[in-house]
Amino acid sequence: MRKTLSLALPLAALVLLAAAPLVASAYQLGLLLGMATYVTLASAWALFSGHTRYISLATVAFYGTGAYTVAVLNESLPYPVVLAVAGVIGAGLALVVGLSTLRLAGIYFVIFSFGLSELIRELITWYEVNVTGTLGRYIFLDITARGIYWQMLALGAFTIGLTAWIHRRRLGLALRVIGDDETVAAHSGIHLARVKLIVFVLASTIITLAGAIASPRWVYVEPSIVFNPTVSFLTVIMALLGGANRLWGPALGAVPLFLVFEWLSSDFPDTYPIILGLLFIAVVFVLPNGVLAGIERLRQRRKA
Amino acid sequence: MSFLSIEGATKRFGGLTAVDNVSFTLEQGEIVGLLGPNGSGKTTLINLLSGALPLSAGRIALQGVTLSGRRADTVARAGVARTFQLVRILPSLTLMENVMIPAVFGAKAHWGTAAVAVANDALARVGLAGRETGLAGDLTYIDQKRLELARALAAEPSLLLLDEWLAGLNPTELKQGIALIRSLTDSGLTILMVEHIMEAVRTLCPRALVMNSGALIADGPTAEVLADPHVVAAYLGQVDADA
Amino acid sequence: MLLTTLILGAVLGGTYALLALGLTLQYGIARIMNLAYGELTLIAAFVLVWAFQGLGLSPIISILLLAPAGYLVGWALYTVMMGPLVRRAGGSGRLEVDSILATFGLLFLIQGVLLLTAGPNFTSISYLDRGVSVFGVSVAANKLVAFGICVVAGGALVVALARTRWGLTLRAVALSPVSAPLVGIDVNRTMRQGFALGTALAAVAGGTLAMYQTFSATGGVVFTMKALVIVIMGGVGNVGGALAAGLALGLVETFVATAIDPGLTLAATFAIFLIVLLWRPQGLFRRR
């Protein structure tokens, strides 16, 4: 009963969400798309960072890479091929980053991810200025806002489904062991670097695809637009707020926070980063394991 | 060919040689005590055997297969399981999950009901049957030690390394613990145990190795080794061998 | 040409070395990975500019004031923010994650305040910008003064760490926070001192930077990144290593900027970082 319900409820919600654009206004559709994007990003981020506690600060490095790939290729290749190329580039980038940092202590990974988006932005800017001679590109794709929303919704559903599936496989168990104690994990026969690498590449590919799917909304793309560090920041705080090691935690954090941030950035554009920073610090201090874990603790206390 | 052979195992940390040219062999089914004063290199040797640390020089082979130079996870899959001096359990996982891990990721790669069966069996052997759904973080110290042993057993190892597994137990628990380890050897498991409790070593181990300042200074029947003047000197300081 | 690169690289490297020294103290002694480090540097840089433009205060006096002010800010930050996290973690690996997340929030907080007060544009001052001939190479006087400050501040710290009882205490905690209390060291207090001292160095480095470089409110990440790479290159907690690696990075960056393209300096930093990670992750200068 419980099992069928845990499958039926999300499916029903998915159908409802997929039908929503038929009645939604353009503004509401924009909000829905934003929510779907951040649910996808936060869930994909948590897939890797939630259990391993390797804090990735590089979300926008992959997201921006996806968007920029579409900007470069949208006129020369058919759309599905462009998406595939973006996915491959994201996976390749993740492989390079992962191979060079994930066999070392977590701090090296954090540092690398911290500067990665800056690096990619600098490299692309240099390349565009010196080699192609143009900074800034246009995306002219025959895709409606609805089409983008449906794609993002599908990617988000896939991400959450993949997370659920992985959690019931060997890989998911390995991730949880690594999160608790890497030494025990290694001595139990878990190949640490391989497990981390597989999941990091999966998560990064999803994030890259999210960037590629979202990119037509921009129309005009340049490195400083698509590599906006706020995206990395928001993704981390959303996943943390909801609970990064729960299946629905990131989604639960992403939806309300996205709406709050939308409101803040339109009504308080100047103080927006300050409020964000304060909120972030508050989450770390007050709800270090996320809202879901906090609610559970309250319940247990009431029982006891 | 010996079951386990260690040839000239050496580990240097900067200028300090923690394990200095140690060589010995173990036969299958043996239970051997590894003794020595604090800081003599016993735990470092266990870390070398389990692949936690790379050797600076020397070779370790299990049933003819070279273990030295391999990562901890491949050493584990080759049949080496261990416990830790400071007990290491996975607090956010259930007892069942804790114990299932090496069954799932070990040489036999069990999954589903097979993994659960192996884990249940291991939990039963250490006396934790029926508690598999509890969280490991909620256990008492002795039960954590039991859990750690169960986890090592669930790897279905051929060589078990115990690092002061009996330390910190009260007299009743100690008796249970000794009986538990004895029951393991009946199944043909080879055990190398670092231990400070002489009563346990005398009861369990027919043979003992003694280390001092990184070097192996004695290897032989436990009673003889413990009477060896060099060993006595190592434990008590500069006691003259004739005194 | 080569000599120019060497001299300008050494000047830049001096600031980098100081920057990294502060971060290595914070991470090595206080065990706090401070991602807002570059933003703390920027605060000092902006303060120096405002003091110079608004009050006509000489940058050298500003830096003399910035050092103790930075120490106080660091002290307060540790007491209010890091201390509770250290206590909550209780020696577990959680502190690393918690401090990364908390300082990541702090980064955006400070950046927001700076953007609000200074705006997004690049800032600089013109102070002592006439050329001085060094081995036939014309170097702006402000760069030489900045370099001198870095040498004095960095040198004083190295000597203090190596020779004084206080330095010994700091090094003991860096080496083993678990066993330091056994010899009567108040670890908590020492960690706070380490963090505060690191912030003071960040302030001095920021001040010297403002004397000769343009900067903006959003540039903190790059400073943190460079300092982090230098710390890794030098070996975490290794003061001499941080100094040497800082100089080396300054040289490489200046070389890349003059010989290839100024837009690729961060790429050069990352390239070095990658090589170090793949070749010697324990740092270039760590004694084996």
Concise summary:
The complex is a heterotrimer of chains A (304), B (243) and C (288). With 304 residues, chain A is mainly alpha-helical.
CATH topology of the largest domain in chain B: Rossmann fold
The strand count of chain B comes to 10
How much of the residues of chain B is beta strand, in percent? 15-25%
Total count of domains of chain C: 1
Average pLDDT of chain B, to the nearest integer?
90
CATH class type of chain C: Mainly Alpha
Shape of chain B: globular
- Classify the helix fraction of chain C into a percent range: over 70%
Radius of gyration of chain B: 18 Å
* Radius of gyration of chain C from CA coordinates: 18 Å
Give the termini distance of chain C in whole angstroms.
Answer: 37 Å
As for the number of domains of chain B, it is: 2
Supply the CATH architecture of chain C: Orthogonal Bundle
The level 1 CATH classification of the largest domain in chain B is: Alpha Beta
Explain this structure to me?
The complex is a heterotrimer of chains A (304), B (243) and C (288). Chain A is mainly α and 304 residues long. Chain A has one domain (2-303). Chain A contains 14 helices and 2 strands; from the N terminus they run αααααβααααβααααα. By secondary structure, chain B is of the alpha/beta class. Chain B folds into 2 domains: 1-78 and 158-243, Rossmann fold (3-Layer(aba) Sandwich), CATH 3.40.50; 80-156, no CATH class. Helix content of chain B is 36%, strand content 25%. Chain B has 9 helices and 10 strands. In chain B, helix 3 (95-105) packs parallel to helix 5 and helix 4 (113-125) crosses helix 5. The N and C termini of chain B lie far apart (41 Å). Chain C is mostly helical and 288 residues long. Chain C has a single domain, classed as ABC transporter involved in vitamin B12 uptake, BtuC (Orthogonal Bundle), CATH 1.10.3470. Chain C is built from 10 helices and 2 strands, in the order H-H-H-H-E-E-H-H-H-H-H-H. The relative contact order of chain C is 0.22. Chain A binds chain C through residues 53, 55, 57, 100-101, 104, 106-108, 110-112, 114-115, 118-119, 122-123, 125-126, 129-130, 229, 233, 236-237, 240, 270-281, 283-285, 288, and chain C through 33, 35, 81, 84-85, 88, 93, 96-98, 100-102, 104-113, 115-116, 221-222, 224-225, 228-229, 232, 261, 263-264, 266-267, 269-270, 273-274, 277-278, 281.
